[in-house]
Amino acid sequence: MNISTKTKSTWCPGCYNFQILAGVKRVLNEKIKSEKDRQKWMIVSGIGCHGKIFDYLNLNGIHTLHGRVLPTCLGMKIGNPNLNVIGFSGDGDAYAEGMEHLIHAARYNSNFKYIVHNNQVFALTVGQPTPTTEIGFKDKTTPLGVKIPPLNPIRLMLASGASFVARVFSDIKQIEFVLKEALKHKGFAFIEVLQPCLIFHPDIRYKKAFYSLEESGHDKSSFEQAWKKAQEFDYNTIEKIPLGIFYQTKKPVFEEHFEQLKKLKAKNIGWRDVKR
Amino acid sequence: MKKINILFGGEAGQGPNILTHILGESLVKQGYYIFYSRDYQSLIRGGHNFNVLTISDEPVYSNEKKIDMIIALDENTIKIHEKNLGKNGIILRGKDKNMYFAGRMFKILGLDFKILEKELKELKKRFDENLKEARKGYENAEKQFKLDAPLRKKSAKFENGNQAIAKGAIQSGLDLYYAYPMTPATSVLRELAEKQTEKNFLTFELENEIAVINAAIGSAITGARAMVGTSGGGFDLMAESLSLAGMINIPLVIFLSQRPGPATGVPTYTAQGDLNTARCTGHGEFPRLLVAPGDLNESEELTNQAFYFAEKYKIPSIIINDKHLGESYYTETEDSKMIKIKKSTPLARHSGNETDENTASSCKQEIVEKRVKERMEKMEEIRKESKKFKTYKIYGNAESRNLIVFWGSTKGAILDSIKDLDCKALQILYLKPFPVKVKNELKKASNLILIENNETGQLGDLIAEKTGVFFKETNKILKYNGRPFLSDELKKEIEKRLE
C-alpha cells in the first residue's frame, strides 16, 4: 500500500520538511498495509509550508485553515474514536493563530498525535518572526528587530497538563523514533520538530547544542526533571538543547470520559454508522 | 373571551418563572391557549425580571401592552408596570412564598384548586409544604375573573422555540452538538445536554466558538451529523470556518439565535439584526441555506430541513431565530412534519485550498473556475429543490390590497394583531435561497407594509435586491429597543397604514 501521492512537491530543494515527511511515511508504511488500513487513518494540516504535507500523503482528512488543526483533530476523534488521527502544524499555526487550542488540547488529552514543524519563522509569507523567533531577528516587516523574548512551547505544554511532550530535530530517524513512541501513547502527544528554514531562518548553529534525553539518562516519568530540562533551551540563546521525550504520563483519555464514545469504541464504529 | 394578560415580576432569583410556568402549563392542559414571554436582565440576583402570560380560548402567539393582573414579588414591579394596568386591574403583592401566590392567582381566575394540586405534584419538589402554602393562598382570595370554558379538545404542546429547535435536531438524527455558552442560544445546549444519554448523542462545550465550529467540521468529515449553536458574536467568530465549511463537501448545521447588537449590545433581549450577517458572512462565494422559523412547528420543521439540505448537498445550513422566539412559550396543537435523513458523507480528502483531481492544492485557472462553478451549482440545485417545501406562507384575507411582510419571531404579534383587520400577511421562511416567486404576491398588493425587529429593515432590503420591489419608508414598522412587538400596540401601527 503506497501512501505517497503523485503530487510534485513545492517545498524548496533540500527543505527539512522532506525529512519530516520521510520519517512519517516510514512509520505509517509499517501500519498501513491495505486500503482498509488506510481508511483508519486521518491527517489534518494547517497553513504554512508544513501544511503542504497533506498533498504528499495519500490519507483522508483535511488541509484546513490557519490555526485550526487541533479542534479539527478533536472533532474527528469525537466523530469516530476508532480513527487514528495525526495533526500537523507550523509554529505560526500552533503558537500564534491557534494558541488557545493548544492549551486546551493538552487539557482534553484526546488520543491523537500532533507534530509542530517549528522553523521559528513565517516562511510561506516570506519570513516574518513568529512567537518562537529569537530576539534581534530582522526582516522587512521587523526592521528594528524582534524585541519580545520567545515562547517556550515545551514548558507551556508541561504546564498545560500534556501527557506526552517531546522535541526532536527534523531528521528521519528522530521523527521515526518519536512518532512510534507517540502512537503507542494513550492520549494527546505533543511533538515539536526543530526545523531550520533554509531561506528565512537558516541558522543551524543550534545543531552543536543538541543532546539526547534518552542517552543522557533523563527520567521521562519525572515532571520535575522535565520542567528543568525544558528550561535549558529558551529558543533565544543557544547553549544546551535537549532532544527526545521530556515527559510521558498516564492520564484519563478524553474519549474514555463519555459512555457514548466508549460504546462506539467497543463496537469499532463511528457516529456515521449509528442507525437511528 | 377577552384575552387576559398577567405580569409576574420580581428580582432575579425570586422565582417568577416557576409561577408563570405552573399557571401556563395547567391552563394549556385545561384547553386554553397560552403564550408567555420572559424579560430578564443580565444578572443573577436582584434587578428586575418579569414574565407576561396571556390567556385566551383561541390561539394566541403574543402578549399585549395592557395588563390585567400584576403579581408583584417586589415593590419595584408595581412601580414599573402599574401604568399599563387596565381598568379593574388587580395587583397581588407581598413577599410571601411563591406557592401562596399561586393559590391566590388560581382563586382569582376562578380555577379549581385540584388543577393546582396536580401541578404541584408534578413539580416533585417540597410537595407538602407547597400544597399548604397554595391552599392558604387559595383560601385568602376572591374569584375576580371569569374564564370562558375552553373550546379546544385536542391536546397541545407547551414549549419554547429553543426546545423546538432541539427537538427538531434530535428528530433529524443529531449525533453531535458543540457550543460555547452564549445567551440566547444556550438553552438549546441545555436542552440537548439533558437528553444526550437517553437519545444517544453527545454535546460538548469547547474553548471558544472557533474551536466549536472546527470540531464540528472534523466530526462531519468522519460522517457524523454535527450541529453548532451560538448568538451573533459567536457567529462572527465562526465566520472564517463557515467559509471553509462552504468550500469543502461536508454537512454542517449552524443555529444562530439573535440578540440586540452590535458588540455585546443587550445580551438578554431580542432583535432581528443579524439577517444580513447570517446571509452574507464568510469570505468568498459559497453555497449556504438560511431558514427562519416563526413558531414552534416551523422551528422543528426548518431545523429538519436545514439538516436535509446540509446532508444532501454537503453545505452549511443556518437556522436563525431570536431570543423572543427561542425563550417564549407557545401553545401548539398540530404535529410537525418531519423527514428522515440518511447519513451519506464518505471519508475523503478535503482542503481549504482549491484542489486538482488528485486533491492537491492548485492555482490553475481552469481548476479554480471549475471548482467555483461546482460549488455554486449546488446553490442552483438547492433553489430548485427548496420548492418542495414551504419557503414562504400567506395569512389573513387573501383578497386584501394591504400586504404585511415579515420573517421570524414577529409572526406571533402580527397574526394576533391582524385578526380583525383587512390585510394579508406574507412570511418569508427561506432567506437563502430566496423564493423570488413572492414577487407576484408583492405586485398584487397595492399597499406594502414591512414589520421587523431592527432599525434598517433588512428583509425589506433583501426583497428589494431580489425582486426590485421597494417599501415606502413610512410603511416600515421597525422596533429596535430590544423588546418584541405587542399585539395591541402593533395593531394601532398597522391600522394607521392600511388603505
Report on this model:
The complex is a heterodimer of chains A (276) and B (499). Chain A has 276 residues and is of the alpha/beta class. Chain A has one domain: Rossmann fold, CATH 3.40.50. Chain A is built from 10 helices and 8 strands. Chain A has helices at residues 17-31, 35-38, 53-56, 69-79, 91-97, 99-108, 153-159, 172-184, 223-231, 259-267, and strands at 41-45, 60-63, 84-90, 113-118, 164-169, 189-194, 210-212, 241-248. An 8-stranded mixed sheet of chain A has the order 2-1-3-4-6-5-8-7, with helices on both faces. In chain A, helix 1 (17-31) crosses helix 8 and helix 5 (91-97) crosses helix 6. Chain A is globular, with a radius of gyration of 18 Å. The model of chain A has no long low-confidence stretch (mean pLDDT 97). By secondary structure, chain B is α/β, with parallel strands linked by helices. Helix content of chain B is 39%, strand content 22%. In chain B, the strands form 4 sheets. Chain B has a 7-stranded mixed sheet, with helices on both faces. In chain B, strands 2-3-1-4-5 form a 5-stranded mixed sheet, sandwiched between helices. The longest helix of chain B has 22 residues, at 365-386. The chains are: A alpha/beta (276), B alpha/beta (499). Chains A and B meet through strand 2, helix 4, helix 6 and helix 10 of A and helix 8, helix 10 and strand 14 of B.
Structural class by SSE content of chain A = alpha/beta
Overall average residue pLDDT of chain B: 96
Estimate what percentage of residues of chain B fall within beta strands.
Answer: 15-25%
* CATH classification class of the largest domain in chain B: Alpha Beta
CATH first level of chain A: which class?
Alpha Beta
Largest sheet of chain B: 7 strands, mixed
By CATH, the topology of chain A is: Rossmann fold
If you compute it from the alpha carbons, what radius of gyration of chain B comes out, rounded to the nearest whole angstrom?
24 Å
Helix share bin of chain B: 25-40%
Task: Work out the helix count of chain A.
Answer: 10
Indicate the CATH topology of the largest domain in chain B: Rossmann fold
Spatial arrangement of strands, main beta sheet of chain A: 2-1-3-4-6-5-8-7
Architecture (CATH level 2) name of chain A? 3-Layer(aba) Sandwich
Number of domains of chain B: 3
Q: What separation lies between the terminal Cα atoms of chain B?
A: 29 Å
Count of the separate structural domains of chain A: 1
How many strand elements of chain B? Answer: 20
Structural class of chain B: alpha/beta
| Largest interface, C-beta closer than 8 angstroms, per-chain residues | A-B, 45 and 46 residues
